[in-house]
Design goal:
It is a single chain. By secondary structure, this protein is mainly β. Helices cover 0% and strands 53% of the residues. The chain is built from no helices and eleven strands. The strands form two sheets. Strands 2, 4, 5, 6, 9, 10 and 11 form a seven-stranded mixed sheet that branches. Strands 1-3-8-7 form a four-stranded antiparallel sheet, with no helix packed on it. The chain is globular. 33% of the residues are buried. The model has no long low-confidence stretch (mean pLDDT 95).
Length: 123
């Protein structure tokens, strides 16, 4: 069983930065892929950033150049550094993990999910 706990969300003004963390515990050995998703009220969940085995990454076009995903294997923690935040980044952000042979970026491929952390960006 895998547990994922997000933290670091909050309220910031446009142009500001936040760093989200996702602490993982349990049987993470096979969880080669990890990612961040977000869901705004009334919208579908969308993929934001993904990482496989700490090296290969993928970003949604909407966050490319502003967000950075990283892992600290020793701490079993996933991060999402978010810079130049925009009001349209406002959403609940979820951490997810998956067993994968190649990087996957769709929600249906992820088996383990955190409870989410709220990010609110005001203009």
């Amino acid at each position: 069983q895998v547990q994922l706990v997000e933290s670091g969300g909050g309220s910031v003004q446009a142009g500001g930065s936040l760093r989200l963390s996702c602490a993982a515990s349990g049987y993470m050995y096979s969880r080669n892929c990890m990612g961040w998703f977000r869901q705004a009220p009334g919208k579908e969940r969308e993929g934001v950033a993904f990482i496989r085995r700490g090296d290969r990454t993928y970003y949604a076009d909407s966050v490319k150049g502003r967000f950075a995903i990283s892992q600290d294997a020793a701490k079993n923690t996933l991060y999402l550094q978010m810079n130049s935040l925009k009001p349209e980044d406002t959403a609940m952000y979820y951490c997810a993990a998956a067993a994968c042979s190649r990087l996957v970026v769709v929600a249906s491929s992820y088996s383990d999910w955190g409870q989410g952390t709220q990010v609110t960006v005001s203009s």
